[in-house]
Write a structure and sequence with these properties.
single chain, mainly alpha, 3-stranded antiparallel sheet, 9 helices, extended
Length: about 210
């Protein structure tokens, strides 16, 4: 019987979000550097560095991802979003050279998720960002999975501390599969049992026979 009080909900894929996922909720609170393109009356409380009632045009500040997406409009320039440094050309060059040298957790920890969300905002660098995200994932995937398969019953904290949130989930999945396989080889696999649907069906049949 599964006694886990909370069943984890998988995050969304790419630009999609799953609002029942704790990872996506945390991701939505990542702060982005933005520039106000028109005055925001009576919203001065959003800018902690100012004591004015309004936010004047041209103000630079940080807002969480969820609020930045809500205020962003392509036709009406309410605000513009600047790229976080890890998605800029300098860091893209590093990722394209050798993605395995970067500590994604330290730089993120939602490198892939936040990078995918940045594609919501019109940027001339969107294509390059998307390509770097893909190539970084491909370049790090084999090493992540190889590590998960070669760390049976070992302390893996040092291995995973440099991984992004998505990579950590893949690492855990790889380890879970390895542990299951090792248990099966040793004859420790759990016994197959009938599903609850089958059991309930049998109970109903017995009841019908008795009546």
């Amino acid at each position: 019987m599964n006694t886990q009080s909370y069943m984890p909900v998988e995050p969304g894929v790419g630009m999609e979000e799953n609002f029942l996922s704790l990872d996506d909720i945390l991701l939505s609170h990542e702060r982005l550097p933005i520039r106000i393109e028109c005055a925001f009356p009576r919203l001065g409380f959003l800018d902690k560095s100012s004591d004015t009632q309004d936010i004047p045009e041209g103000t630079k500040m940080e807002l969480p991802l969820w609020l930045s997406k809500g205020l962003y409009e392509r036709k009406r320039r309410v605000l513009s979003v600047e790229l976080p440094k890890i998605y800029r050309e300098g860091w893209r060059t590093v990722f394209n050279a050798d993605p395995n040298v970067v500590d994604l957790h330290k730089m993120g920890p939602y490198y892939y998720g936040l990078g995918s969300q940045m594609l919501h905002f019109d940027s001339p660098e969107n294509l390059e960002i998307a390509q770097t995200l893909l190539q970084t994932f491909i370049g790090r995937f084999r090493r992540t999975m190889d590590s998960s398969q070669n760390a049976y019953n070992e302390d893996t904290s040092a291995l995973v501390e440099r991984l992004d949130c998505l990579e950590k989930a893949l690492f855990r999945s790889g380890q879970s599969g390895l542990n299951g396989f090792q248990g099966w080889e040793k004859g420790q696999a759990s016994q197959l049992t009938a599903s609850s649907l089958v059991l309930n069906y049998r109970k109903r049949k017995m009841t019908d026979v008795q009546h």
